[in-house]
Amino acid sequence: DLDECTASPCKDHQYCLNTDGSFSCKACDASCVGCTGEGSDKCKTCASGYMKEDEKCTDIDECNLPEKVCVKENQDCVNTPGSYKCICSEGFEDKDGTCVQT
Known about the structure:
- InterPro entries: ECM_structural_protein (IPR050751), EGF (IPR000742), EGF-like_Ca-bd_dom (IPR001881), EGF-type_Asp/Asn_hydroxyl_site (IPR000152), EGF_Ca-bd_CS (IPR018097), Furin_repeat (IPR006212), NOTCH1_EGF-like (IPR049883).
- This is CRE2A protein.
- Residues 59-98 form the EGF-like domain.
- Belongs to the CRELD family.
- This protein is mostly beta strands.
- It contains no helices and ten strands.
- It has a two-stranded antiparallel ribbon.
- The chain is elongated, with a radius of gyration of 20 Å.
């Protein structure tokens, strides 16, 4: 078997999987920018919103940072993979970018 992966035939956001007589390109984990294999522990670099922790790229919980990311009144922070969302607190709704009582 010839290892076609040595020629790096895959795109930047993929890794090469050598198979008998061939190869396939597989997508990197969402937490990676470039990777050498499957999973968040095979990232070349962590994607935005992720940080290297115990050799893995893990999600940064922006809602638990010392500096508040959702600064408008009556707004709550919701962590999402690689990012976060600011939503109006319960009993409030978004009206032109301001959280007003419902």
